[in-house]
Design brief:
Distance between the termini of chain A: 16 Å
Number of strands of chain A: 12
Order of helices and strands of chain A: EEEHEHHHEEEHEHHHHEEHEE
CATH topology of the largest domain in chain A: Ribosomal Protein S5, domain 2
Shape of chain A: globular
Largest sheet of chain A: 7 strands, mixed
Structural class of chain A: alpha+beta
CATH architecture of the largest domain in chain A: 2-Layer Sandwich
Number of helices of chain A: 10
Radius of gyration of chain A: 19 Å
Oligomer: homodimer
Strand content of chain A: 25-35%
Helix content of chain A: 25-40%
């Protein structure tokens, strides 16, 4: 047991293209941080929720929920004070709730020297993600492990970290619009025609092959989502134009990050990335949407104790 | 142009586990062979169809259809005599129609020195497979290329040959029962619930990851088909017992090969393969079905000119 512990977890792209709920990619440069300090009373006291819109009720805050699950597994009956620093936007589609949960689980595990392994940490963080965003691990797993991660199964947890081509870069474009995850999930079809199912499965598998074989062109042409993207594009003014602009500017692929509103593009060159970012921002501006963009590398480290 | 040309194409497992219509594996030891000999008259004359139940009408024989497509692409307006030697069972679920088509396309390409590339050969063979079995390339692609092949797309043809772990072996068990491909396809659901879709996609992708990363255990646990196998098991008496017997005897995984009736198991050891084959045969025998089994390596060469 330590007196204090801090952990950082990076943001991530969930639903990478056809990988709805099953494929996620950790992105460098921004993330969430959680610091726990031992206190005498029981339970978690949120001294800093990380954002004015986030709850201070620990039963509703992703970081505290994940940490409580770690406390329970470790048999710890004491308490801790929590301060969260959010580097990721709320409801942005950049894996913010997952990063907050992972940072909480990793920091709590370190605080207590509990020795939980990756699968156990994911289970704890999944309790949080299920409560605040939905029961899926495609943001959690890359936020914990870094890189590109395939979620084969939740019951039991089985995630596979994949190699990532060294020259792969991500462009994130965050237009000034709101889209709640629950609204983005509500438009997903409940039943899917078999031809679409087979196409989607083939393309997720081809993305994995492209990653493993270092074939960025294959990753690009396999990033073809015919389930979530068509359903959600209607909720995201400007997205279709931004995607067209990204492709015209040289992107390998472009789709919605997580449940949106952030859009992402993949590129194989930093300079192309800058050009793609500008093209996407210009397209959103035509739709009346100011847009923050950045070009990022893949985060290969995942969550870290600080 | 040559006076005569012969090509061999191996059998294959289609629909490998969750890879319905998109993942196929070439199997050593048995295949189909096609020999063309130039003749003066136009068109293909079938002098040997390869089996008494196969048509001698060239517009209905897979080998002749594929060869005719090659002739057309090459601009060849002459004729040829065709003799087929079938090493694979009819309607067995061992990729027999695909092997016959691929052997025809490859032999015709060699006969005419037409220089068609793999994609063009697959398009020619796909015309045959579409006519006799259905429009899918999960048997054609491994029969042409060898190994484990993912079919990302048919329009345009985009297939990805994957690495195969060196110790992977295949057990084939062919019970003495009939199942027509069209009947096996008729039981497939038209629409599929989203949770099943995501599980299936995750598991196909995980099989690809397992192959690329050389992780046979991952291949085994990812070989989990919740679409075709449950629907088809009802048409295949003895299969469920044979699968249970295979798993109990040490198989990594077991499922239906193609549209059946052949069942296959994957093992990581030749000796285990022999044990699994015996266990599967015993289970089918309990259901009153004499069963031919064999343990085979993966065919890594694909179709060859002889």
């Amino acid at each position: 047991m330590r007196q204090t512990a801090t952990a950082y977890a990076p943001g991530s792209i969930g639903n990478v293209g056809p990988g709805l709920d099953i494929l996620g990619l950790a992105v460098s440069g921004r993330g969430d941080e959680a610091t726990f300090t031992m206190r005498d009373e029981r339970g978690i006291l949120i001294a800093g929720a990380g954002h004015p819109d986030l709850p201070t009720d620990p039963s509703r805050h992703a970081t505290a929920i994940a940490a409580s699950a770690v406390f329970a597994r470790a048999g710890y009956r004491g308490g801790a004070t929590l301060r969260v620093t959010k580097g990721l936007p709320l409801s942005g589609g950049q894996g913010g709730s997952a990063a907050s949960a992972i940072a909480g689980a990793v920091a709590a595990n370190y605080l207590l020297d509990a020795g939980l392994d990756d699968a156990a940490l994911l289970e704890c963080a999944l309790e949080a993600e299920s409560a605040v965003a939905g029961r899926h691990a495609d943001n959690l797993a890359p936020s914990l492990l870094g890189g590109l991660v395939l979620v084969r199964s939740l019951d039991p947890i089985d995630v596979i970290r994949l190699p990532v081509p060294a020259n792969l870069r991500v462009v994130l474009a965050h237009p000034d619009q709101q889209l709640q995850t629950r609204d983005a999930r509500a438009v997903l079809p409940h039943d899917i025609p078999r031809d679409v199912v087979l196409h989607q499965a083939a393309n997720v598998a081809a993305m994995v092959a492209g990653a493993c074989l270092g074939d960025v062109a294959l990753i690009g042409r396999a990033l073809d989502d015919r389930i979530a993207e068509p359903a959600r594009a209607a909720l995201l003014p400007g997205f279709i134009a931004a995607k067209q602009a990204a492709m015209a500017a040289g992107a390998l692929a472009c789709s919605i990050s997580g449940a949106g509103p952030t859009a992402f593009a993949l590129v194989d060159d930093e300079v192309v990335g800058v050009r793609v970012a500008a093209a996407m921002a210009a397209a959103y501006a035509m739709a009346g949407l100011p847009t923050a963009t950045r070009v990022a590398t893949i985060d290969l480290r995942g969550a870290t104790v600080r």
